[in-house]
């Protein structure tokens, strides 16, 4: 019996494929043994409200429908996507570590001779439906097949903007492995991924893929794909450690004190990929981070030092919140300047090497966004994006303007 088997074939056939599958059998038994599962659901490391308070939901809907708010939440002109090709990714990174942000939370990490693909979403909508739901604000930077062979796909949790049915089905035809939090393997098996290619982990569990160690670490979020959120799948952040480099991917998370513990046990990191978009202090303050909280998390992970490079993720690709489209980028710039920390600002699809002398540093979104009421900050208010002291790497300057021009 497969670990995901739970109900009769007839009942499973009635559940839309995009909803995935509820874990059952041995998989469900393992979930129930988890120290992070209680009273029929996974629980957060710190308490978190996952949905807007009932009294706030009406105002949230009104805000989504207001025309002036809709304009601010999208770019005014086409997003400049970097024209990356398969040939660009064929040569190994000179430093042994290269990241390519494909938009939202999707990142290809080439680390110490291995290739890790985080939260790949190549579909047109992050929705169970092809005709409705948040649609991409920019095209995918390059076809999925152009990425080349991938050793392991890492999934942070099962929400539609992180676990994409069309993308998983495309990858199911390859020999890549999947590293996922507990319960998520049930979705993958239903979509054609062989059980033997799935590594399913609880928080603080690790698996080896070639010369890499992948560890699922805590996050403060929630799960669910169907009409009924059973909380039977886990959410996680991820640490990937190679022979020479270490990286961290936050997945979706609210700020919590556990970042310091993750950093102390697994850091410091050459690069962190931190969620800084789709936040709402009013409607869901506990499950997504603001740019300021994202920078605080980055510093916590680095032992309080502004070392390593932070790559902001979970923004610019889908309209998932009420804040202006460019606000996460601007907020990250300001937080980096305040902290004296290095952040990379690639256009979607632009490869860069975090431990190189410079990283992409231009606020490219300003050329295509609706300007704020007071205009954009002066150039001298921006922060140079270079490797900081304490990482064993050096760097200076603000990057190559040609590499990040809007074309």
List unreliable stretches of 5+ residues. Answer: 1-8, 387-407
Overall shape: it is globular
CATH class, please?
A: Alpha Beta
Strand neighbour order, sheet with most strands: 8-7-6-5-4-3-16
Terminal Cα span? 55 Å
Strand content: 15-25%
Helix content: 10-25%
Mean pLDDT: 88
CATH topology: Metallo-beta-lactamase, Chain A
Q: What is the number of helical segments per DSSP (H or I, 4+ residues)?
A: 10
The number of E-state strands comes to: 16
Structural class: alpha/beta
How would you summarize this macromolecular structure in one to three sentences?
Residues 114-315 form the Metallo-beta-lactamase domain. One of its GO terms (cellular component) is cytoplasm. With 407 residues, the chain is α/β, with parallel strands linked by helices.
SSE topology:
Blueprint: H1 9-14, H2 25-33, E1 37-38, E2 41-42, H3 54-65, H4 67-72, H5 86-90, E3 97-103, E4 106-111, E5 114-118, E6 152-154, H6 165-172, E7 177-181, H7 185-190, E8 198-201, E9 206-209, E10 212-217, E11 237-241, E12 246-249, H8 258-266, E13 271-275, H9 291-301, E14 309-313, H10 327-339, E15 342-343, E16 351-352
Parallel strand pairs: 5-6, 6-7, 7-8, 12-13, 13-14, 14-15
Antiparallel strand pairs: 1-2, 3-4, 3-16, 4-5, 9-10, 10-11, 11-12
Helix pairs in contact: 8-9, 9-10
GO cellular component, one term: cytoplasm
Protein name: MBL fold metallo-hydrolase
Pfam family, one: Lactamase_B_2
């Amino acid at each position: 019996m497969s670990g995901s088997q739970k109900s009769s074939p007839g009942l499973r056939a009635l559940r839309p494929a995009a909803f995935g599958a509820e874990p059952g059998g041995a998989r469900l038994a393992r979930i129930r043994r988890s120290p992070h599962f209680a009273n029929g659901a996974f629980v957060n490391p710190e308490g978190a409200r996952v949905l807007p308070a009932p009294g706030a939901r009406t105002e949230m809907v009104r805000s989504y429908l207001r025309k002036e708010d809709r304009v601010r939440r999208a770019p005014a002109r086409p997003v400049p996507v970097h024209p990356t090709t398969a040939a660009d990714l064929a040569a190994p990174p000179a430093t042994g570590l290269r990241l390519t942000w494909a938009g939202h939370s999707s990142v290809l990490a080439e680390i110490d001779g291995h290739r890790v693909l985080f939260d790949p979403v190549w579909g047109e909508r992050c929705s169970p439906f092809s005709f409705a739901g948040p649609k991409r604000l920019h095209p995918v930077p390059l076809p999925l097949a152009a990425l080349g062979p991938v050793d392991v796909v890492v999934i942070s949790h099962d929400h539609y903007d992180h676990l994409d049915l069309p993308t998983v089905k495309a990858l199911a035809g390859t020999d890549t492995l999947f590293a996922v939090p507990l319960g998520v393997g049930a979705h993958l098996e239903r979509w054609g991924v062989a059980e033997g290619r799935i590594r399913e982990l609880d928080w603080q569990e690790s698996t080896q893929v070639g010369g890499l160690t992948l560890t699922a670490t805590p996050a403060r979020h929630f799960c669910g794909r169907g009409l009924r959120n059973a909380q039977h799948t886990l959410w996680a952040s991820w640490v990937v450690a190679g022979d020479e480099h270490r990286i961290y991917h936050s997945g979706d998370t609210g700020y919590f004190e556990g970042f310091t513990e993750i950093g102390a046990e697994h850091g410091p990191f050459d690069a962190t990929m931190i969620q800084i978009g789709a936040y709402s202090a009013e409607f869901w303050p506990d499950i997504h981070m603001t740019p300021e909280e994202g920078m605080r998390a980055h510093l916590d992970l680095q032992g309080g030092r502004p070392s390593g490079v932070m790559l902001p993720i979970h923004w610019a690709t889908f309209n998932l919140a009420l804040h202006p489209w460019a606000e996460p980028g601007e907020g990250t710039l300001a937080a980096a300047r305040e902290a004296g920390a290095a952040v990379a600002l690639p256009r979607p699809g632009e490869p860069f090497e975090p431990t190189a002398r410079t990283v992409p540093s231009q606020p490219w979104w300003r050329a295509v966004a609706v300007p704020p009421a007071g205009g954009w900050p002066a150039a001298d208010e921006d922060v140079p994006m270079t490797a900081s002291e304490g990482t064993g790497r050096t760097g200076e300057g603000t990057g190559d303007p040609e590499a990040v021009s809007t074309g």
